[in-house]
Amino acid sequence: MCILLCGNEQPCRADLVRHYGAAADRITVVPCGVDTTLFSPMEEAEARALLDLDTGPLLLYVGRIAPIKGLATLLDAVARLRSVGRPVRLLVVGGETDEPRDGHEADVRAYAQRLGLEGAVAFLGAQRQEDLPAYYAAADVTVLPSHYESFGMVALEAMACGSPVIASRVGGLTTTVRDGLTGYLVPEGDPAALAERIVRVLADRDLRAAMGHEGVRWATQHRWPCVAEAVCRAYAGFAPRATPHLSAARCR
After folding, report:
1. How far apart are CA 140 and CA 195, in angstroms?
2. How many CA atoms lie within 13 A of 191 on its CB side?
3. CA 99 to mean position of chain CA atoms
4. How far apart are CA 193 and CA 186, in angstroms?
5. Are 13 and 39 in contact (CB under 8 A)?
6. CA torsion through residues 42, 45, 51, 57, sign
7. Which of 6, 32, 122, 230 could form a disulfide with 12 if both were Cys (CB 3.0 to 4.6 A apart)?
8. Which domains does the chain have, with CATH numbers?
9. How many CA atoms lie within 13 A of 43 on its CB side?
10. Residue 94's beta-bridge partner residues?
């Protein structure tokens, strides 16, 4: 038996079969987990006060600044929204604190300037893990415009904090984000579709609240004790007569 921590069951299973000749019926895929003792809901006003952020529509990106992350698509979407009078702002958490002189991050920052987004986009650099929950809670929407993600840990962290997530319909994001319930999935590399979904979420406070609530509920099913329980159940398959000792994780 092969036990694999992965986000999207079918592609992960298919890769093992294709590349390693594994037997499909002997593969168990367990989703990754999230620390809900750290990533938990906070009032938006409290989070913004903590981070010294103003009121107004706020988008959040968290992650590496690399070509596969698709940040240029998000910048294009922000530019589209501001061109029609929607004063959205974007916080970019990840990458360098100081402005890089070369490399992809420098290209992304230069692209933001060419789009006229100097006052709308803040590149904050990498932040401490313990500070991330406040950023998720402060944002109206967390956006993952990736060209590919094997799982989408940022999406799960954001949902655990009550933030709706808009993400590309790729890889593990297709199962990590519940389309229409915890956020929206959009075509990869499509700034128009991304902008349309951002507007829909920003325009409806009740929708944001409902998605945030469902995201928290969904994330509780991915707590690390739940992941451990799933792994224990899978390992119990090696010894069918054995009964694994499981804590009352209440993961269902």
Report:
1. 14
2. 13
3. 24
4. 6
5. no
6. positive
7. 6
8. 1-33+224-252 (no CATH), 44-220 (3.40.50.2000)
9. 4
10. 125
Amino acid identity of residue 129, one-letter, is Q
The predicted-structure confidence for 200-237, as pLDDT tens digits, reads as follows 999 999 999 999 999 999 999 989 778 778 778 777 77
Cα dihedral 130/131/133/134 (nearest 10): 150
The mean-pLDDT minimum among 25-29, 70-74, 90-94, 162-166 falls in 25-29
Integer Cα distance of 120 and 88 in angstroms: 7
pLDDT at residue 5 tops 80: no
- Which uninterrupted H or E stretch holds 142? strand 141-144
The DSSP-derived string for 46-58 is HHHHHHT--SS-E
Q: Is 224 helix (H, G, I), strand (E, B) or coil?
A: helix
At 161, list the tokens.
């904090």
Question: Which single residue is written with the structure tokens 């702002």?
Answer: 89
Average pLDDT over residues 106-130: 96
**Rounded percentage of the chain residues whose pLDDT exceeds 70:** 89
CA dist 60 and 157 (Å) reads: 12
